[in-house]
Amino acid sequence: MSDVRRAAAFAAVGVLSLVAAAAAGQPDARVAAVVAAAPFLLVAGFALAVAGPDGPLFDLFARRTDYEEGRLFGLGGFALAGAGLAALAAGSSLPPVAFAVSVFALVGGTVGAAVVEARRPHEFLATAVFAGVGFAWGLVGGLAALGVGYGVTDLSYPPEAVPAPTLVFLAATAAVAAALLRTVLFARDDPLVTVSVALVLWLFAGLEVTVPPTRLGVGLAVTVLLGYVAYALGTASVAGMLTGVLLALFAIVLGGYGWFALLVTFFGLGGLASKYRYDEKTDRGIAEANEGARGSGNVLANSAAALAAVVAFTASEGMAPAYAPVFRFAFAGAVAAALADTFSSEFGGLFDAPRLVTTFERVEPGTDGAVTWQGEVAGLAGAALIAGIAALFFELGPVAAGLVVLGGFVGMTVDSLLGATLEGGRVGNQGVNFLATLSGAVACGALSWLL
């Protein structure tokens, strides 16, 4: 139970984040920053300069590596990250509520996961509990920060405070993002997790995102359900599942149901395409690793351009509405490119006599940059499917839908060209995937501007 006690002790330290909400009311921003950071700095000083390896507090907070070093570097790093963020929350535009939500989500989720691992070690169950408890405790932290900062005691929000749906969205974002980062990083990287999550929440707070309550509720329910289905079917690893859930939540809340439909079509059909005739692909040396379950790097590489488009769409709606449709096209083009490339690789690789896209010479199956006409047809079908869904939800005409298909074709072709020329050297497979979807987004968005 030492891990549970240590997680609970870190959760107690996390409560210090509420000091920033109280200090933010100081008339002098520099004084407010010092007051907010001081408790965390005292904890850091104790951890790095005072606590010795023989004391009970050392045993309470120490990780295995701390015993080897003789210092509480884990606690010290966490406290220093908290001090920096607390100073920003009290003395700059980082909302104290967002800071408290990010810290509470991390420490609360860690306690929940530690309890699960102490009773029944199971990666998916521990991660799910991390996200659930982190979400609930993040909400508690946000409400507590509102209470401290605005004197709210009855959930009656003052106009200048964070609206309730936005607070729920921030807590969900913090919990899933923290769970994802904890999955791909080490436990000692908690300071990096804290800072990363707080910066994401700061971005959304700065965009003054309007969160429709109904869309938020649907988004939370549907993304969690589909995340479990993706993991149960083996189309995504735990990290890949969390990445998909986070991106789908952003799509449905920041964009809308149509944006979500496009993204979930790619996730669903792309995952199933990887499973199609998997043993045969393994024999040919072209199968995805991990039995076709896509990891966070693969999901993010295929979705990062689309994510940037939906965030840019949200920002442009408030600052430059005339550009918002361009980013909608960019999103559709990126997703069309991702599915076109996936279909081209997963189906085209099953046919013999592929040719290198740059010289049209026959090469062995699985060669980077190799294409087959069957794969090209499958890729175009994938892009056309995304274009059809986009036409339905975004009310696009034939020409506009054709631009989405063209974006998908451009992305698929760029992927093949980069595979034949750069992949395996300075650019890896995930980098090629990102550049391909980015090319599809840029082509589709730029051409839509000319319509």
Write the topology of this structure.
Elements: H1 2-14, H2 18-23, H3 29-50, H4 56-61, H5 64-69, H6 73-91, H7 96-119, H8 123-150, H9 164-184, H10 190-207, H11 213-232, H12 238-255, H13 257-275, H14 278-284, H15 296-319, H16 324-348, E1 355-356, E2 370-371, H17 373-394, H18 398-421, H19 429-450
Antiparallel strand pairs: 1-2
Helix pairs in contact: 1-7, 3-6, 6-7, 6-10, 7-8, 7-9, 7-10, 8-9, 9-10, 9-12, 11-12, 12-13, 12-15, 13-16, 13-17, 15-16, 15-19, 16-17, 16-18, 16-19, 17-18, 18-19
Transmembrane segments: 32-51, 72-91, 97-116, 128-152, 164-185, 192-210, 216-233, 245-269, 377-394, 400-420, 432-450
Membrane topology: Multi-pass membrane protein
Family: Belongs to the TMEM19 family.
Structure description:
- Belongs to the TMEM19 family.
- This is DUF92 domain-containing protein.
- Keywords: Membrane, Transmembrane, Transmembrane helix.
- Its main location: membrane.
- The protein is mainly α and 451 residues long.
- 76% of the residues lie in helices and 1% in strands.
- It has 19 helices and two strands.
- The chain has a two-stranded antiparallel sheet with strand order 1-2.
- α13 (257-275) packs antiparallel against α17 (373-394).
- The longest helix is centred in the N-terminal third of the chain and has 28 residues, at 123-150.
- The chain is globular and about 70 Å long.
- Mean pLDDT is 87; it is low at 153-157.
